[in-house]
Amino acid sequence: MIQDHGSVLGALGLFTVLLGAALPLIDFFIVNVALPTIDHDLAAGPALLELVVAGYGLSYAVLLVLGGRLGDMFGRRRLFLAGMALFGLTSLACGLAPDAWTLVGARVAQGAAAALMLPQVLATIQSATAGQRRAKALSLYGATAGLAMVAGQILGGVLVAADIAGSGWRAIFLVNVPVALAGLVLAVRSVPETRSQRPAPVDVPGTLLLAVALVTLLAPLTEGRAAGWPVWTWISLAAFPVAAFAFHRVERRADRQGRTPLVPPSLLALVSLRRGLALVLPFSIGFGGFMFVIAIALQQGLGMDAIGAGLALVPMAVAFFAASLAGPRLVRRYGSLVVTAGAVLQAVGVALLALAVWGGWPSVGTLDLLPGVALAGLGQGLQLPVIFRIVLSEIPAKRAGVGSGVMVTTQQSALALGVATLGSLFLTLAATAGMRDALVVTLLVQLGVVVLTALLSLRLPRSVT
Q1: 4-202+262-457 architecture in CATH?
Q2: Residue 86 near residue 138 (C-beta atoms within 8 A)
């Protein structure tokens, strides 16, 4: 058996696993600007369109921790290769889908493939690097994750507008196929095999209860508005706290009995992980909701086409990338205060966006949005990579798969929750108060979430390793 401490992750291997980290996040956001075109071509309707987004996010979030555990057991490189191959195949299925329900099914399968692949990225970094190499790799992971979330929406707009060979929206999925093939070739050559020295068996009760908890929360919040809040949505929401409590009890009992639960409560005893996750949650809720809402507002409210809606976010991507590059140097000097400063900058950016929308609607252009979008991206770039480093800083290598799975599950669940909550708020208000007021109110709610993130960041360990 190849053990964690015997493997080294080189530059090409790091590039390859970061490519694997970028693909699932790009595909969470790439569909946002393509939804109107998908609706037109497949006559999907609001409920199925939300399932195209939520089906991917649900299966992705539910299976992430299990994916991390399987990597610990069977080898992270092996699971990374399997996930990459399946991601390419399911992307092909999405791109060739003849109707809306087939697309939803393919998106669910694509999310499951992403859940196999993504936990292996952080687990490989944790177990095959050390010291400054690990800190640099984790910073690059955070930068990649944030940039992928913004770039996904930009890339989606470009591909839909390009209409390559008449493919229209299908290109946003088909583009993954050659990328996945290249990733497989690179991974075979450059990614070392690592696994836990004492892999724990799969926690079946914990896995099932976590799945029930996430589905009972996210499914009704995502589909409730479009479906008219039928009885099943309220029953599902009522079942969520029961499922969550049962999951907590089962995991605590397994931990006390010396078994390895899916999410070990002892892992949550790590101060850096616990307080870092407390920031991942509001940050990702705000980010996921903002990206979904802005795509709709720019196209349906301001009449931009897909490429215009995508390109309007280019300043955010550029600013995020610049902040990510400067982040490690700033962290060495100021520690976790960088996160607080980033939250303040993001708050100013969101406030500027709200002012631009309030004063200039419906003639708001890309230049009017630029200051707010750029400042928000700058602030996000100072936060996300540092938060990821803090969350993972104290996790031992033997628990790398479990720890990374917990963090990414929190992030992915929060992204989906942001789409469900802020998206539903925006769409409900847009139908009654109009698009401008709906967008301003949603931005102000997000501003409140950013302020919460800034306050929580003051509780982070000041030193960042």
Answers
A1: Up-down Bundle (1.20)
A2: no
